[in-house]
Structures are given as structure tokens and as C-alpha cells.
């Protein structure tokens, strides 16, 4: 990682830690000027861990799934979507299709349009194109977005021009890809950008809570990123010259949900993702379609 401009030559402490220690709140423009030798003003798909450092982002370790008393809303047939994805080899395309079907229902729809990340007068829409989910009561805004971590990496690879011909070009391409690839896939900067973008979209509804559901090559669990994005951080992105009342910071929690048992996965997913006050509405909508609403306690013991 490049040494930030302005850091003393004999200091081993990163500039971001120095700024945090002094407690100095800086605007986005000031941060960019302070680190003008680094390539920071890029689209979200090119974000690196450096961007997370400068935004004061902390991502907590994944927590185990909570045991919940669930109302049985969906039928056992819904387990077919997961079973089908696993049978097809759990590829990014197959699991993405399965999760989109499992997240949407008669009460929660999804839009396959882009999630817009805004910075000042510029908008990046082509680089964070992920499905977002919303209540049919559109006045409630976007409830969540879905991403697949492997598909994100595939898009990163596509951003770098393919090195055709000599081996030197191919090696240079590999180095460029490595430079924008997170060492820990669970700390993907694009997920953070999507969380911020959701908060930006929901400012009209006075909501700052964002969540992103993420799948990966992990065959055991799905990850749910949750964060309350501070309004002053959104103001800083809207107006890069705005100085916040305190240093920038983003705290993100990561919850997990086990895929097995398949037959209860959809109920467990909805109970963890969608607001509890909406669960009765979901149950009512499903009941009108003749779904079985028998009680389901916790995680069932069956593995299918």
C-alpha cells in the first residue's frame, strides 16, 4: 500500500491511525488532498481496503445464527430452490438465482436495477448493479440488497484489460487485479459501498439502516451485513467540502444463517432480514395462496 503524502518518514504508524489519535474530523476533500499521491477517487468496484481505512470502517467477525421461534410461513417446496442450486454445483449464477427467488415473495418484491452510489455531482450506476428488495408498500424504501462475492470478483477481473500476447502483459494484469482484490473476501469494499448506497437511496424515507445479503463459495452459510450509516457521512459524500462533527466511521455487523436444514431456510432468512412487523403481512399473503402456516420452532432437525 502506498505511503500517504504527509506522513513522516520515520513514522511506522499509518496516517489514518494518526488522524484517529488526534481526533481531527476531516472532510472528504481534505482527505483526498492529504493523500493526493494515492488513487482514491475511483468507482466503488475499484475500492480497496485503503478506502475502508479512510472511512473509519470496522467489520465485526461473523456471528453464529440466532435460535428463533419462527412461524411457518413457507412450504417445504421452497427448499427446492436451494437443493437445485447445490445440485448444479453451487455456481455463482445458480445460487444467485436461488437466493433472489427465496428473498422475494408476495409481500416483498425485488428490483433488478442498479443500486446508485452518489458522490458529489457524480453518480456511479454501472458498477454496483445488484438486486434490491423492497416492501410492496413503496413508501418504506429499500429493505436490503443481494450480492454474490464471487460475482463481485468476476466484475473486478473484467475491469482490468486482458493482457494478450506476451507474458509481461499477463503478469501486469494479474498485479492490477491483485491490487483491487481484498485479502479477506468477507471484508469486500464493494459490500460497504452498497451499504452506503442503500442509505443514500433511503434518505427520502429518513432511514439510515442498511443491510446486504451475501453468498459466496461457502456451502454452509449466507452472510448478512448490517449497519446504521451516520447521516453526517452521507452529507460528506453529498458535499465533499462538508466537515463532519466527528471523524468518519462505519460499524458493520455480520450475521450468518445456515443453509441446512433446507426446509426451514427461507423462514429463517426472512425472520433475520425483513422487519418483524412485516412477518404477519407475509404470513397473511402466503395464507391467501393456500400455504401451510403450522408453527416451526427454531431450526428443524431434518437436513433436507
Commentary on this structure:
The chain has 304 residues and is α+β, with helices and mostly antiparallel strands. It has one domain (28-279). It has helices spanning 15-22, 28-34, 49-54, 79-87, 92-103, 149-159, 167-179, 189-201, 231-238, 262-273, 279-287, and strands at 57-59, 69-71, 108-111, 117-119, 122-124, 132-135, 142-148, 209-215, 221-228, 250-258, 295-297. The strands form three sheets. Strands 1-10-9-8-7-6-3 form a seven-stranded mixed β-sheet. A two-stranded antiparallel sheet has the order 2-11. Strands 4-5 form a two-stranded antiparallel ribbon. Helix 4 (79-87) crosses helix 10. The longest helix is centred in the middle third of the chain and has 13 residues, at 167-179.
Provide the low-confidence segments as ranges: 1-21, 291-304
User: What average pLDDT do the residues reach?
Assistant: 80
User: What is the radius of gyration computed over CA atoms, rounded to a whole number of angstroms?
Assistant: 21 Å
- Looking at the structure, what is the overall shape? globular
- Strand runs, count: 11
**Major sheet attributes:** 7 strands, mixed
Q: Helix coverage percent of residues? A: 25-40%
Number of helices: 11
Strand content: 15-25%
Distance between the termini: 46 Å
Helix/strand layout:
Elements: H1 15-22, H2 28-34, H3 49-54, E1 57-59, E2 69-71, H4 79-87, H5 92-103, E3 108-111, E4 117-119, E5 122-124, E6 132-135, E7 142-148, H6 149-159, H7 167-179, H8 189-201, E8 209-215, E9 221-228, H9 231-238, E10 250-258, H10 262-273, H11 279-287, E11 295-297
Parallel strand pairs: 1-10, 7-8
Antiparallel strand pairs: 2-11, 3-6, 4-5, 6-7, 8-9, 9-10
Amino acid at each position: 500500500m502506498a505511503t500517504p503524502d504527509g506522513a513522516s518518514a520515520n513514522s511506522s504508524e499509518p496516517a489514518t491511525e494518526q488522524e484517529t489519535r488526534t481526533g481531527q474530523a476531516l472532510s472528504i476533500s481534505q482527505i483526498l488532498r492529504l493523500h493526493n499521491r494515492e488513487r482514491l477517487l475511483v468507482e466503488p468496484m475499484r475500492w480497496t481496503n485503503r478506502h475502508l481505512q479512510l472511512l473509519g470502517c470496522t467489520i465485526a467477525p461473523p456471528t453464529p445464527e440466532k435460535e428463533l421461534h419462527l412461524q411457518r410461513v413457507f412450504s417445504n417446496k421452497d427448499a427446492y430452490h436451494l437443493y437445485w442450486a447445490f445440485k448444479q454445483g453451487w455456481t455463482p449464477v445458480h445460487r444467485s438465482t436461488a437466493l433472489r427467488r427465496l428473498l422475494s415473495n408476495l409481500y416483498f418484491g425485488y428490483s433488478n436495477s442498479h443500486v446508485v452510489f452518489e458522490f458529489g455531482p457524480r453518480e456511479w450506476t454501472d458498477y454496483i448493479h445488484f438486486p434490491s428488495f423492497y416492501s410492496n408498500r413503496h413508501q418504506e424504501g429499500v429493505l436490503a440488497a443481494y450480492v454474490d462475492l464471487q460475482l463481485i470478483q468476476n466484475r473486478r477481473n473484467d475491469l482490468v484489460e486482458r493482457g494478450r500476447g506476451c507474458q509481461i502483459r499477463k503478469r501486469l494484469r494479474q498485479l492490477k487485479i491483485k491490487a483491487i482484490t481484498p485479502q479477506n473476501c468477507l471484508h469486500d469494499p464493494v459490500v460497504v459501498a452498497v451499504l452506503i448506497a442503500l442509505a443514500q437511496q433511503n434518505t427520502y424515507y429518513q432511514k439510515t439502516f442498511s443491510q446486504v445479503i451475501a453468498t459466496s463459495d461457502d456451502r454452509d452459510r449466507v452472510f448478512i451485513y448490517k449497519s446504521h450509516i451516520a447521516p453526517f457521512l452521507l452529507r460528506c459524500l453529498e458535499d465533499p467540502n462538508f466537515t463532519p462533527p466527528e471523524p468518519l466511521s462505519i460499524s458493520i455487523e455480520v450475521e450468518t444463517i445456515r443453509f441446512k436444514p433446507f426446509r426451514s431456510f427461507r423462514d429463517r432468512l426472512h425472520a433475520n432480514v425483513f422487519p418483524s412487523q412485516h412477518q404477519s403481512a407475509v404470513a397473511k399473503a402466503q395464507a391467501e395462496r393456500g400455504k401451510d402456516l403450522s408453527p416451526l420452532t427454531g431450526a428443524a432437525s431434518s437436513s433436507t
